[in-house]
Amino acid sequence: MGLTDDKTKECEKAILRIASGDGEALSVIYESYGRLIYSTALTVMRDAGKAEDVLQDVMLRLLRYSGSYKKGTDPRAWIMRMTKNCALDALKRDPPVSALPEDAADGDEFPDDFDDALGHAALRDAVESLGETDQRIVKLRAYSGYSHGEIAEMLGISAALVRKRYERAIKKLGKMLG
Questions:
Q1: How far, in Å, CA of 167 to CA of 29, rounded?
Q2: What Cα–Cα distance (Å) separates residue 124 from each residue in 5, 53, 91, 106?
Q3: What is the pTM of this model?
Q4: What is the rounded CA–CA span in Å between residue 67 and residue 90?
Q5: Does 56 fall in a domain?
Q6: 9 close to 72: Cβ distance less than 8 angstroms
Q7: Is residue 169 part of a domain?
Q8: Is residue 49 domain-shared with residue 121, that is, in the same domain?
Q9: Which domain covers residue 70, as residue numbers?
Q10: What CATH number should be reported for the domain holding residue 138?
């Protein structure tokens, strides 16, 4: 059994403990997925404070909706779906006004395991060289697994435009890394 399998089982147990009233088990979820939740929220919200608010909303929703978790499903996918929903709700309430915060340029929006998951630091540098919108599209699609339609909704543009920009960005990355 791999490390990921252990983490998955530990998180599933924590969600089930939360559902049975053990609020302390929320710390297991926070330690396992807090950074990923925050990173995803930061990519969507483009504001560190708003991303922290989304993280808190996700933790509250975990407390509230843990009873709806179906044992045997992927806890990471369930939590990331919740993160997406919280971020979309936050975007509807308070659409972003500014670009990515300055501190995002130092890599804070990438989870620790981003380089491991996608290969190496060269890819990170290549993605960082893309324009702001293309970076967001690539990160949301390739790393977080959102659909073109979901990304379009987050960014307030058409799904066709998201698809086209994603394809162009991937081709550009291929040339840079090729």
A1: 34
A2: 26, 26, 26, 11
A3: 0.59
A4: 23
A5: yes
A6: no
A7: yes
A8: no
A9: 3-93
A10: 1.10.10.10
